[in-house]
Design goal:
mainly alpha; 4 helices; 0% strand; 168 residues
């Protein structure tokens, strides 16, 4: 049964919020690990954590809404822009704040910091993919490629077998 535009937008908002909260909390843990690796004192406020979570959710919000309203390319572009923003900020901020401590600590600390910093892109890519899929699922939209939904004429399960001869 087709859902109304309002229900689909609400599904996109909910998906962006749920996945954004999880990704924001994961990134906050990674930020704490960067500070620990650098030898700093990991003090984080509740207000700062809430801000990080809201930024992570807000960055995916336009893409999630576009995904449920049917714009595949616009959703990909908006999710990609949100992910690019998050990637830039999540790597740039720790390097600005902890760069001196990391560089003075030596080779092992630099290697550990790079491993932790490399986890940020994984979290952000997983967030953007999961946000789009969850938004489409909650909105009742198919998640497959256009024209390849189950039951469509181009569904490979319904396609006639090829005979190997030239097409006429």
């Amino acid at each position: 049964m087709p859902r109304s535009i309002g229900q689909r937008v609400l599904a996109g908002l909910a998906a962006a919020l749920v996945v954004g909260v999880l990704a924001g909390l994961a990134s906050r843990v990674l930020m704490r690990l960067v500070v620990l690796v650098a030898g700093g004192d990991p003090r984080f406020s509740l207000v700062g954590t809430v801000f990080v979570v809201l930024v992570f959710a807000g960055a995916m919000l336009p893409g999630a809404v576009a995904a449920v309203l049917g714009g595949r390319w616009s959703a990909r572009v908006l999710l990609g822009l949100g992910a690019a923003f998050l990637l830039f900020e999540s790597v740039n901020i720790p390097l600005q704040e902890d760069r001196t401590q990391i560089m003075e600590a030596g080779g092992l600390t630099i290697a550990l910091a790079l491993v932790v910093l490399a986890a940020f892109p994984a979290v952000i890519v997983a967030q953007s993919v999961t946000t789009a899929r969850l938004a489409r699922a909650w909105a009742g939209r198919p998640g497959g490629r256009r024209g390849h939904e189950p039951g469509s004429p181009t569904d490979v399960r319904l396609a006639a077998p090829r005979t190997g001869g030239p097409r006429q």
